[in-house]
Amino acid sequence: xxxxxxxxxxxxxxxxxxxxxxxxxxxxIRLRGPDAxxxxxxxxxxxxxxxxAHEHRAGLLAIVEHHDADxxxxxxxxxxxxxxxxxxxxxxxxWSVADTAPGxxxxxxxxTARGYPVVxxxxxxxxxxxxxxxxxxLDPGRPRVxxxxxxxxxxxxxxxxxxxxxxxxxxxxxxxxxxVP
Length: 181
Known about the structure:
Blueprint: E1 9-11, H1 17-32, H2 40-55, E2 60-64, E3 72-80, H3 87-100, E4 104-111, E5 117-124, E6 131-139, E7 144-152, H4 158-170
Antiparallel strand pairs: 1-2, 2-3, 3-7, 4-5, 5-6, 6-7
Helix pairs in contact: 1-2
């Protein structure tokens, strides 16, 4: 999977949990300002995100930032599936997710710039503010999907950060070996 660089999306290293945590924590402090260094919640959030990224063997963990929005976390990776998926599979997945998952706000399908089908699932937080979006890019040529999960704990400016993540997803190239910008 090849991803192109998108301004506003800053990837962090996935070389080790410790390095991922340190880079992520530094970015969060920069985005929140000088008083954020005393916010233990940011360090906890960085640790949890780093551990989750490594646990799920993510290919990308990044901060998505927009001047009119709260920063969001973007996690992406490739997942094997039983058989290559098609546009028809996307439609089936679309209906299945919409019918069974709680907190779903909207499920839609799209196509990337390279013609890959995408199922987009937007969730609203059930227990407070925040939003989550998942984009599942289907690879018709191989038995795998690329899953992108964007999470904004605050939800302010959600459409702005979601648009940046959408730009990244729209340019994904599944014919290439794994490379992150």
